[in-house]
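Schema walk-through. Below, the input block comes first and the output block second. Nothing else is stored per chain. Lengths vary across the set, and this one has 540 residues.
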Amino acid sequence: MKKLLLSVLVTMTAHFLAPVAQSQALCDANFQYVIGNVTPNGAQVSFYDSSFAAGNITNWSWSFGNGTGSTQQNPVGFLNPGTNIVCLTIVSVFQNQTCTDTYCDTIVIGSSPCNANFVYTSGPQGVQFDAFNTNNVSYTWSFGDGTSGTGVTPFHTYTSPGTYTVCLTVLDPNGTVCTSCQTITIGSSSGCQAYYTSNPVLGTTIYDFTNQSQGNATYFYWTFGDGGTSTLQNPSHAYNATGWYNVCLTITDSIAQCSDTYCDSILVGGGMLCDPNFVYQTSPAATVFIGTGQNNVSWSWDFGDGTTGTGGPTATHSYGVAGTYVVCLTVTQANGQTCTSCQSVVIQNAANCSSNFAIYPDSVTQHTYYAYNLATGVAPLTYTWSWGDGTSSNTAYPSHTYSGPGLYTICLTITDATGCTSNTCYQWQLLRLSGSGVPVTINVIPGTTGLQEAGAINALTVYPNPASDVINSSFTLAKETGVSLKIINVTGQVVYSLPSAVYGSGTHEIKLNASGLPKGMYLVEIQGDALRSHTKVVVR
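--- output ---
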């Protein structure tokens, strides 16, 4: 998959390669899909939005690459035979800030042809090339200026402006060789190219801005996102309130007769977004609450029935009486900021036993899911898993493989030693990334004691993302644990690691050195005491 570098402002697209202010993205478009029956005319494809947004997504815009599209969140589209480039653009709003992001993926209907397509992004320092298909055996680039290169994502600097024909030749796993060429134009180095860096003044709401534009700008115009402006070359600006602001610099070169604008978002107040949002899954007697925010150091839960709890990002609670409860989560960040979010939770039945479970996709292995068995009751318990495809299992921690993707109703029924019986069903969309026949597997693992393990697995976060010199990692442990941290490249090679160390329960912040890593996609891995979690990060 490749994320096309489309940004909230068109003027930002030419600046991917320059170091940007380290701020958390407000939104990140993404989707998954399931290919239906393939015919000579094409196939119906079901799309499922999996985008992230700090606030609420207000708009979904799909392009299916054949002149059709949709504005539904989870549409069904008809794709033509061969290669289709499908794009999703989302618009979200958070704290009066609007964010737009686009994600594109190449979907092949029918047999997969040799794919040598690529995209590129020009910046002040050169051109970043990215091959669409990352599964080929080899990649050979001709940059059109007499030089060549290899690899999936090479970076090339042109010494003079002009028009160049760039060609990529690939060898695919079937032994087929194919070539794709594009014509790119490199502008004169004397032209306009706006860019700036920003630095907060610690302990204040003041930001210092430094112009780093290319060319010989004679006029500078800044908008600071709060109504303030400046015509200084390197201004400072004091904000009256914390939050996200979109700052733009427009330069004008009267000699070259050109103008350019560069925008970036900054977070005034330091730290990450204070995000108290949470999701939950409920069954007759036990409810799992999962805080989704990053960089929180404490979680305080009000379960709405007169009881409270602490700890996170995951918590469980058993309600004694059916009803509607207003549940609130208050989180505290490392910088001391607190915020609260509340939701109404409906408990339909209460009992002395619970058959609750929670399903999550594996963060690294495609087509694989984990189901956390959260059943409670007086031991011993009997278990019946109904998989929704006509089969069942009678153990606590089975593994089940589906022959194909689809919408399945998965149920767990338990009976404890007192005769208490509970049944929980979830309708779950099991996805795979192609119609290639790869099976989909669910592995059930312990959840009653493993709940905190699940919390640790889901608590690893990295920021900023994309990163440059330093990757900040944050993780939460339910108990004192010896863990190690690694950075792994796309070939599985460990390119950076920290020695294993013992950390106490709670949230920890560890800095990882990425200054020597080539640009590209990596996995940050934390492992220890049967806990293992990955998260993706881009180094640029």
